[in-house]
Backbone:
């Protein structure tokens, strides 16, 4: 899963559809600044499990502050599956 | 982030409602911010014995109250929002628009002079008394659109039906209703993989179950003098500008208790009309987060400034930094 995949998922969660979303690099932007609360993140990790087969525990949501931190957790979890 | 703009952005206050409350909310400002303190003292005094008890519970360290119960959350959300609005005015920050979520809309009305503070305190007492008579229930936030949730809603349960209680964002919807129906719907949603979470509320606000409270609340409004708003209000009851004849209609305010909060439609209509600096004027940063989903904010035309932090700690520091930012926007 790439940052682009995550950006697309976050845009879906926001219901952005065809409208223009954030164009800048958001890897280190806090989720709260992007408008994503813990419920939006819960939904995002549910999507990640559906689309990428990587399961993340729900209580991880409280510790995630930026897209970069989420991607790091996904990568860690995918490696341990092998 | 501070953008350098040719023209200052007009200010719109976003006033939060049920769900935003937390223990010790805004308490750091009490005794430190003169206007905030004076306005709150006046409100508590107008509420009589109930007001004294409420203030003592709110300020106790640790805070000694069941904050989520409507009898505490509603008057405190109203009063802290209203007092913050007056505090901003005393710093020369005057809003060009107001938008209130649920009880926050009453704070907006009071700030716009629809009714005075003494009458507002009476209304909040009546709101609490009316709510006590309502069936037990709650509210459930779901990461889904209204269309996605429709198949799970059951309109056969009559006054206890689970309905859309708030449209907060394109895929941010709050359901509301009496128990055990709300819990049944929650189980069904989880079973189908819809992410959801309970809102901190013990009463089924913005659902037909509130019908019990509407009549009593309407009677309270019919005893007071009301005026059209002196500041434009974008109504979350209608998703549009509040008209004078609505603002002075007791039935309009009473039914606001039982009908969905159209937060996203109202915000969208407001930001389509023009760009604003959006100041969340009340506890927490829930409305700020929702506003950051809006294209005009995303694209940098509008700015979001929460006045308070997510929790009780650091409220004074956050408030003063927010005021500084707002003065930079419009010296």
Residues:
């Amino acid at each position: 899963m790439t940052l682009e995949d995550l950006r697309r998922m976050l845009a879906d969660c926001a219901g952005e559809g065809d409208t223009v979303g954030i164009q800048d690099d958001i890897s280190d932007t806090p989720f709260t600044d992007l408008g994503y609360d813990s419920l939006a993140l819960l939904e995002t990790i549910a999507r990640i499990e559906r689309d990428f087969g990587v399961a993340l525990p729900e209580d991880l949501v409280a510790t995630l502050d930026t897209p970069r931190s989420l991607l790091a957790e996904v990568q860690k979890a995918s490696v341990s599956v092998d | 982030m501070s953008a350098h703009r040719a023209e200052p952005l007009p200010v719109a206050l976003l006033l939060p409602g049920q769900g935003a409350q937390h223990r010790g909310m805004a308490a750091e400002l009490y005794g430190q911010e003169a206007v905030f303190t004076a306005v709150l003292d006046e409100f508590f005094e107008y509420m009589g014995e109930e007001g004294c008890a409420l203030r003592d519970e709110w300020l106790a360290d640790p805070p000694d109250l069941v904050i989520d119960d409507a009898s505490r959350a509603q008057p405190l959300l109203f009063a802290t929002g209203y007092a913050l609005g007056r505090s901003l005015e005393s710093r020369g920050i005057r809003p060009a628009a107001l938008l209130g979520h649920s009880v926050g809309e009453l704070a907006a009305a009071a700030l716009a002079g629809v009714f005075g503070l003494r009458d507002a305190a009476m209304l909040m007492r009546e709101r609490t008394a009316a709510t006590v008579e309502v069936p037990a229930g709650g509210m459930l936030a779901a990461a889904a659109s209204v269309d996605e949730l429709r198949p799970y809603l059951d309109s056969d349960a009559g006054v206890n039906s689970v309905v859309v209680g708030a449209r907060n964002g394109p895929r941010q919807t709050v359901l509301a209703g009496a128990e055990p129906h709300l819990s049944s719907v929650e189980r069904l949603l989880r079973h189908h993989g819809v992410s959801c979470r309970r809102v901190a509320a013990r009463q089924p606000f913005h659902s037909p179950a509130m019908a019990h409270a509407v009549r009593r609340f309407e009677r309270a409004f019919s005893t007071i003098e009301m005026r059209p708003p002196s500041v434009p209000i974008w109504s979350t009851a209608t998703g549009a500008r509040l008209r004078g004849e609505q603002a002075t209609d007791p039935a309009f305010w009473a039914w606001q208790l039982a009908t969905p909060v159209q937060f996203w439609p109202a915000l969208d209509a407001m930001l389509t009309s023009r760009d604003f600096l959006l100041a969340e004027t009340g506890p927490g940063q829930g409305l700020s987060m929702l506003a950051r989903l809006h294209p005009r904010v995303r694209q940098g035309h509008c700015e979001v400034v929460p006045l308070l932090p997510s929790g009780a700690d650091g409220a004074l520091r956050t408030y003063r930094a927010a005021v500084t930012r707002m003065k930079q926007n419009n010296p």
Notes: The radius of gyration of chain A is 12 Å. Helices of chain A lie at 3-13, 31-34, 38-52, 67-81.
